[in-house]
Structures are given as structure tokens and as C-alpha cells.
Amino acid sequence: MPAVYSRAQWGADESLMTWTPRVASTLKAATVHHTAGSNSYAAADVPGILRGIYRYHAVTLGWGDIGYNALVDKYGRIWEGRAGGLAQPVVGAHAGGFNTYTFGVSMLGNYDVVPTTPAMINSVSSIIGWKLGLHNVDPYGSAVLTSGGTNKYAAGTAVRLPAIFAHRDTKSTACPGKYGVAKMGEIRARAFGYDMAESYVRALYQDMMGRGADATGLRNWTTLLSGEPVAARSRRASRTARNTAGW
């Protein structure tokens, strides 16, 4: 899992929670959002902004907790959202009738009016790539989800969606903004790199070396190989293995 700031680190008042976390049987897709708030925040402002969103979702809207599973600020920091554990397929309150089987990540700010930052997109991709990898979901794949009812799809409608989709794909909304939508292709590519690089390197450690993956080595190799085509990864790994073995 990439580095994530916990609920405690942004000061979540757990007494505001009025729901018992629900965990789905699996995860099928990830949803990209934006919070549509101010873009002029400083790094030190973020915990307070998150507390404000939390209170609005939990108390004002009656959702019992913050709706998003994770949030990412413009500095590229990832923040834990809805309670229940990031490794679990926790049902959020972020995509209307498409909350079950989806992982909701929201970019802090309004990306209909300003461009996203590279650090933000990198972190959105990494947390989604990690999450989908836990459930063997191909970031370039698709999933059939059944609508619970939105202003775009009536309840009971089966909808085929990309494995990483924008909120506007399931509801008549601007979310995640025109600049956010423009980055969906990059998010899928980067998520695929994070997802596939780790699974590929883990297989190398286990199959070529006959031992379990070393956490540090896995992380270093994954960073090195992330984003490369599989053939290029194979050539690089083969060269590295030969050099290491003195072939």
C-alpha cells in the first residue's frame, strides 16, 4: 500500500460516526471524484478541510461517515477516508447507486476550473492500482454493476463500466471536472503499471529465486519496472538476473 495518512492523523471525530461499516464480498471497480471545493489550500489546511467534509457527509447528509474511501490532495498526499479498513472492500457513500463493489477516491479541489497536479494524479493512480491489485482487477478491464438508482440509470439497470471510471459515468454530474476527466487515461495507465509491476516482480522473486518476496526488494523493483511494457520488463529482469548471478 502506498503511504496513507490515517483518520487519526487528520483528526476524524469518531463520535460522529453513526454507521456500522459494511464490507462487500469483493471489489470490481474504482471511481474517481473531486470534492469541488477550493483549490487555494495550503498543505497545513488539509486536515481541517477533511474534517469539514466528514461532518458534512456524516451529519448534514446523514451518511454516517465520510463518503469517499480515500482522498488525495494536490500535494500528492493520500488520506484515509471511510472507516472499515482500506484493504477491505468497504461500501462507501460516494457514487450514488454504484457504491457497492467500488472504491471511491476523491481529489481535493475543483478540477473543473483548474488542472490537476502531477503529484495528485500519481497518488490517485498508485492507491487505485494497489487496491485493484488486491482483488485481481485489471485497470484496463471493465465490470458490470447494477444501479441502485441515479439520475442517469434507473434502479436495477445493469451497466458495463471501465474498471476505473469517472463519477460522471454513473450520474449526471461534472465530477471529477473536465481536467480530472482528461486524466482518466493516464490514471488507468499508471494504475496498471503499479498493479502489474508488483505482481510481476513478486512472481520473479518466487519463481526465479525460489523464495518469498523481500519487502524492500519488491518495492525497489516495482518502482523501477512500473509503467514499462511487459516485454521490456522481461528483458530488464533477465539482464539483472544474469548480472546478479555472474552469467
Topology (SSEs and partners):
Layout: E1 4-5, H1 7-10, E2 29-34, H2 46-60, E3 70-72, E4 78-80, E5 102-107, H3 118-134, E6 142-146, E7 158-162, E8 164-166, H4 178-181, H5 184-208, H6 215-225, H7 230-245
Parallel strand pairs: 1-4, 2-5, 2-8, 3-5
Antiparallel strand pairs: 3-4, 6-7
Helix pairs in contact: 3-5, 5-6
Question: How does this structure look, described?
Answer:
Helix content is 37%, strand content 13%. Helix 3 crosses helix 5 and helix 5 packs across helix 6. The C terminus is likely disordered. 39% of the residues are buried. A hairpin with a 5-residue loop joins strand 3 and strand 4. The chain has 247 residues and is α/β, with parallel strands linked by helices.
Q: What is the percent of helical residues? A: 25-40%
Name the beta content range.
Answer: 5-15%
Q: Judging from the principal axes of the Cα atoms, what is the shape?
A: globular
Number of continuous helical runs = 7
Q: Low-confidence stretches at least 5 residues in length (pLDDT < 50)? A: 228-247
Distance between the first and last residues' Cα: 34 Å
Largest sheet: 6 strands, mixed
